[in-house]
Each structure stands twice: as C-alpha cells, then as structure tokens.
Amino acid sequence: LHPDDIFWCTADPGWVTGTSYGIIAPLLHGVTAIVDEAEFNARRWYQILEDYGVTVWYTAPTAIRRLMRLEFDPTDEYDLSQLRFIASVGEPLNPEAVVWGREVLKRTIHDNWWQTETGGIMIANFAGQPVKPGSMGRPLPGIEATILRRNEDGTVTLIDQPNVDGDLALKPGWPAMFRGYLHDDARYAKCFADGWYISGDLAMRDEDGYFWFVGRADDIIKTAGHMVGPFEVESALMEHPAVAEAGVIGVPNPVIGELVKAFVSLNAGYKPTPELQKELLGFGRSKLGSAVAPKQIAFEQNLPKTRSGKIMRRLLKARELGLPEGDISTLESD
User: Fold this and answer.
1) Of 38, 105, 107, 282, which one has the fewest beta carbons inside 10 Å?
2) Of 2.70.70.10, 2.60.450.10, 3.30.1330.30, 3.40.50.980, which CATH number belongs to 1-107?
3) pLDDT tens for residues 231-262?
C-alpha cells in the first residue's frame, strides 16, 4: 500500500481477511479504505471502483468468477484506469481467472495464501515477479515455507523434489503467528512437528520455488472464500426438532468452489417433504448465516457410520460424486 492509495477489501469484517486486511492493514498504513455493506452486485462493485478511484482491490475468487460470467466488458462502461493492483484470497484462484483479469480488466490478479492461524499473508505473488496462473506464489521475505511429510514418530521428512505433493508447512516465529486454540491445547500441539507448523493444506513447490495448492488435508469445506467445518453445520441443523442426525460435505461448484450439502435423518413423526427441506434451508441460514449454511439438503434416513458411531462424510461424498467408496470395513450401517 502507498500513502495515497484508495484501498478496498471486499471481505466481511467478521472473517479474518476482513479483520486483518479490511480494518487493521489500512489503519496501520493510514490509507483510505472503502467499506461497503451491501450484498454482491457486479455493477455496484464496478461503480465503486470507478467512483472512488480504487487503486488496490483485495477480493475473493468467488466474486471474480461471478464477474467473469457477465456478458459485458466492464472497461467499456466503467473507468478502472486508477486500479493498479488486484489481489485475491480465500481459496485457490483458478488460472482462467488470472487470464480473464489480464484480458478484460487489463490487470494481473495476484493470488496469495494464508490462514486465520497465520494472522497475515505468508505466500504471495508479488507485484515485481512473474505470475504463474494457478500458483499461490512464493513465501514473503522472512517466511520459511516447505513441503514435507509427517512421520509417525513425530519427525518430518522434507520434500526437496519439485512438483511432489505434501503438507504445506512453515517455520514458526513470524510476528502474527497464533498462540493457541481457545480451550484446546491438544489441538494446538498437533499443529507442530519437528520444529514446523503443519498448515493442514496440501501443496507442491515447483522448480522455480512457486507453491501450488493441492487440497485440504481434512474435510474442511471451502465455499465462497470461507472455510466451513462440517461439524459446525451439522450441530446447527440438529438444533431443529425434525433432525436426528446430519452429515455435511462439500460438493464442487464452478462459482463458489464448493457448496455445502447436508444429508439429514429425521426424528420420528417427521416426513421428508419439500416443505421441510425449505424449512431446514431457512433454519440453517438463520443459525449460521448465508455464507456457511447448507445450499442443498437431502434426506438420508440411514447415514453411513463407523462402528463407533461416527458419520462417514468421506463415504457420503464418494456416493454423491460417483467416486470409488474405498475402504468400508468400518462401515456399520448403510
């Protein structure tokens, strides 16, 4: 950011990007920041960029994909000449979006990577380096990132070969590093191994030192730039008197990355009707907000579980997508 910049971070301040970069960053740098509370509207956004002369724009891949679907060239109708830098975060930015930015907005969209736990950007495409569409970029100065495999004895094996998948890890010690999870010291301890912070994301590093996102190591759902935990959604749905159990997965979606889909079994006295389906969708939105709530609900009276009673989300997803079910030796009910 430069002293005379007009900065617009489109993230909700309730999420870490909106807090760290929508509020704290512009205040620290003393630059003018745009705050817009309205829901996404493409023409409204372009009008804001023009009217306020936004110079630095930080947004999410979901918003960019929505803009890409419009059937008009924004530069024909709006003056975006003052816009000098665009960045994107929240989920991986697909290569097509980078190409679209160059061809339509006449600007390169810079992807980057970080987490709530890191407190700030760790890996990014810098303004002064070539951008490889689809890559999250290179580590920031002072940040040591690597790809590794975690061993059962608590040690790690660093992966030096290029283009090999592994856990994306960081050397602890950066100023914004998180200090723990609230009331969950054990979970915090599991994030570290052999002197490295294990991010939970899978990635690879190419021969030029660029990092590429591969996927999440667990079943966290990335939807519209947000990370959604299935347990949170399941717990909220089960507060409804009709719901006995719920299993939540992410289903690939070309616009928002993944949409949240819930499979629910019903309590006695309730029938799987379209009316109840709509009611549960509305209930989810009221409890969780539209960004986190399920977009689809399916009735499944016999959710697949392990013998210990854990719902097998992996199996739900495989069946939903028509993929191999894999090992089902622990499956109890079907």
Assistant:
1) 38
2) 3.40.50.980
3) 778 888 988 989 888 899 999 999 999 999 99
